[in-house]
Amino acid sequence: MLGCKKWVHKKCSGLKRLTKDSDFKCSRCQGTARPIDGRPQSEVQVGSDKLDVVASFCYLGDMLSAAGGCDLATTTRVKTAWKNFKELLPVLLSRHLSYKTRGHVYSTCVRSAMLHASKTWPLTKPNLQRLQRNDRAMIRQICNVKPEDVATTRSNELLTLLGLEDLNLILRERRLRWYGHVERSREAIKTALDMQVTGSRGKGRPRMTWKQVTEGDRKDWKLSTTDPHDRNTWRSGVR
Fold first, then answer.
1. Which parts of this chain are annotated as the region Disordered (predicted)?
2. Annotated domain spans of the chain
């Protein structure tokens, strides 16, 4: 992975940002450090250039991790969404706007920022719960729900009031639409989807891949037998 150098000692998990002159020392025990994702080499040769091996880096506003998953990406997207929400809060609370209009503005300016690039995320339940928790907190503010009324107010009623769909449905639709695009493609993106990684994996249950998550979405939405190459049928099934 390319980006800022962040390393962790394999025994005590002490963190430290390194400079070119540092000796790869752990900030806690000053021992020999190694990359956080377990890669033994500190750099790789690509043509005539040497690239640093790091644990994570920022790409188009999302933090990508060499260890897989989308924890960093969801955290970054949530922070961006809250920043946009705070800037738009006076508009969203305006009495001159109907609830449907508020929902449309929220979906366009806030949700779109929070779900940017979500079609490629292999979401886990903690990631999904984090997104839903923040989404519902912002929706309650738009609808002026008081703290003492939170326990008795149903999120489905607020979504209907604003004319919005549940976040889980939107995420699934985005993944399935992108899955259809990848299956129909003849470029490198299709090759990467079908690529088999060689080597042995470590102990424990492996992380869910994006393909496994999408196959679960197809099963839940009864699209297992639908051919993605049939654009019209696939599009109507996804929607």
1. 196-239
2. 6-59, 68-164, 173-193+207-238
